[in-house]
Amino acid sequence: MGFQRTLVLIVIAVGTVIARDTRWCVVNRAEEAKCQKMKSVIQKMKRSNVTGHTPLPSDFMCVRRNDVFECMEAIELDDADLMTLDSGQGYFAGRQHNMMPIMAENYENVTNSKPTYYAVAMFRTNKPVSLDNLNEQRVCFPAIGTSAGWLYPISRLIRDQFIVVEECNAIVKAASTFFKQMCLPGALTSFYNPFGNNPTSVCELCSGQNEEFCTTSDTSGGFDGAFRCLAEGRGDLTFLRHDTIQLMTDPAYNIAQNVTYTPDQFRLVCPDRTTRSVDEYLTCNWGQISSNIIMTSAVRSADVIQGYKAFLTRAFEWFGPYGKYKSEFEIFRSNTTYDTDEFALTFSRKNQMFSDQTKRLEDVVGSTTYFEWVGNDFDNILDYMNACPSNAIRWCVISEAEKQKCESMMLALKAKDLRPELDCLYGKNTTTCMEMIYQGDADLINLDAGDVYLAGRRYGLVPIASEDYGDMSMKFKVVAVARKTDKHTTLFNMKDKRSCQPGIGRGDGWIVPLNIYIETEQFLPTDCSIFNNIGQLFVRSCIPGALDKEYNPNQTPISLCEGCAAGGYRKCLRNSDEQYFGSSGAFRCLVEKGGDVAFVRHLTVRDNTDGRNHAIWARNRRSDDYELMCKDGRRLNIDFFNQCHLGEVPANAIVTSGRKTTKQREIMWNLINYGQQFFSSDIDGDFHMFHSGNWYSDLLFTDAAVRLMKIPEDRQNYKTWLGENFIAQIENLQKYTCVNPDSASQFVPSLMLIILISVVAHFLS
């Protein structure tokens, strides 16, 4: 029974392989030509029935992309199946594109479960190079992300403080500042250059043409291309695999390329500041590295992966150095010409599809993931490559839901290897977070414009980045919304109505609406009367935070919170625990008949109707069921906010301590900016910066935001950012609320000091 079961499983696996095409991803014309030759030979053997019952794919196909990063994406999207990668790039493929290794190259004739090679730094004998004059050298790199050609040598130079990192997430900039000139293929790809601001000097020594220039397909790319870049005199130093030198100085290569390279023309630079001959790589290297790996998508089924392995094993047995059909095709050799190439081109590239030094292929038994293959020491390499002159950035949150989203953002940024790391600290409320930032116990929080005023005036916090809602103005308009069926309600007859307001102290939920009440003479406040005035105007309201002592010392009347929806201690809290908090919450209050008018942002109605919000409360809500109420008494369609709004408010801003240096503020902004390059979409990926799910709204950022914009340094203070008009509206209300904006002590004890005082008091007692 056991034998029959095994036989059945083999038949199933073979059947699966035969039924599925195998698509190999190639990145240049030479590799495509070799791949097409392999395809032709396999088809020929099938027709002549040489293969017999050997498991082969139904068709072997060659998929062309511009570089290895596009190939990774093609495999992730199921547009290709297989490719060979350097272990460093394989780590990237696994981390960013969910790929896994299935087989490995072995550069010896004996079985080895973990084949390796060495990273070396090579220069021309007639132009000496030493570690002490590296900054004067022109460097030819094989490609960004390769282990021997980038990660191992650069991390060592950072560790030994030759290269100084002054900016987080900008290792390419650091290297380009250190070396005189470079060719670093792939350094301008979107992942390594998300803002497009890597210096073009990283490509000065590259020689590729058209779309291949400075990509991993560049003729100066790859270990053979980097060798030629140095040998031809364009560069002074290159980082290679140790066996590249043997390959490129082989007499057979010299004859084929009509060149003469001999080992004595080159020497190695050692990490201990000595130089040695190229055959002394065992004592003069920059690290021992796991061999190249053949990778596929990690979501392929087990039987398909077994099929790939069976096919690759058979291909090695047929076309390897001792293969039965070596005369038909050599899988580990890159020819100068291929009879299947319709243009009859002559190629100089080596290491096409596989490394030319490969002797056999091995199953990656015990290393089924990319991080298992690269080994434990690889983490140390990445730590240096991700060096950042800053400690963790601490984001202050004001609710459990915000904390959960913040922790998701922390993990998302960490998954992209972004530095410095993010940490999430819980503050009881917004003003507690302001105090924590003032004391140096936290770094960042995103605030409404009304809170920015308090943060700047009371705690000296400064805005460094702003939300944008689609028009690049970094502002929004406040509108008053009513149900269309409630035809008789206008801004001038609020008496005995019910109001839904985003929150006390906010620009949209307090400052603009209250100034409108006063302007339209809904009430005439006197000193300290405004809370009672609102209670008398509206039969009930939901103004989250309106009974907090921080904002309303007398904590009356209770009608200011009666319209809120949360139960227990959560009712009327000035955070997401209250369902009606924030602009979307105020609109929800109107939708669920908690009020007759909602004061919200100009995009709030559109964002929560017509299927744009999938939360239960927003489902089946039509935008044309609501209208805007204008200051001139008219009622207009919700999209006419330019003609019918109550005032403009500066967008939410991310604030930090005013004591932070320009460099520290830049590091914070860069982390946030890098984050939004990867996570600003509300559709793609597992984490969305500007989406809070179906249960909450406006966690960390406003859901209506589409991007974050850096605030110019000359506007990084609350007065300049908010503007005279908005500040005047805030200060117009202060005499009616009787809350001194400077009332907080200028010295708020830190948590450690409070603990220390308590301990001392205990012992003294």
Can you walk through the features of this model?
The protein is an alpha+beta fold and 765 residues long. Helix content is 33%, strand content 16%. It contains 23 helices and 26 strands. The protein is elongated, with a radius of gyration of 33 Å. The protein starts with a helix and ends with a helix. 47% of the residues are buried.
Topology (SSEs and partners):
Layout: H1 2-19, E1 22-26, H2 29-47, E2 60-64, H3 68-76, E3 83-85, H4 87-97, E4 99-106, E5 116-124, E6 138-140, H5 147-159, H6 171-178, E7 181-183, H7 222-231, E8 237-241, H8 242-248, H9 251-257, E9 266-269, E10 275-277, E11 288-290, E12 293-297, H10 302-319, E13 360-363, H11 370-374, H12 378-385, E14 393-397, H13 400-415, E15 422-426, H14 430-439, E16 445-447, H15 449-459, E17 461-468, E18 475-483, E19 497-500, H16 507-519, H17 530-537, E20 538-542, H18 582-591, E21 597-601, H19 604-607, E22 626-629, E23 635-637, E24 647-650, E25 653-657, H20 662-679, E26 707-710, H21 718-722, H22 724-737, H23 751-764
Parallel strand pairs: 1-2, 6-7, 6-8, 14-15, 19-20, 19-21
Antiparallel strand pairs: 3-12, 4-12, 4-13, 5-8, 5-9, 5-11, 9-10, 16-25, 17-25, 17-26, 18-21, 18-22, 18-24, 22-23
Helix pairs in contact: 1-10, 5-12, 16-22
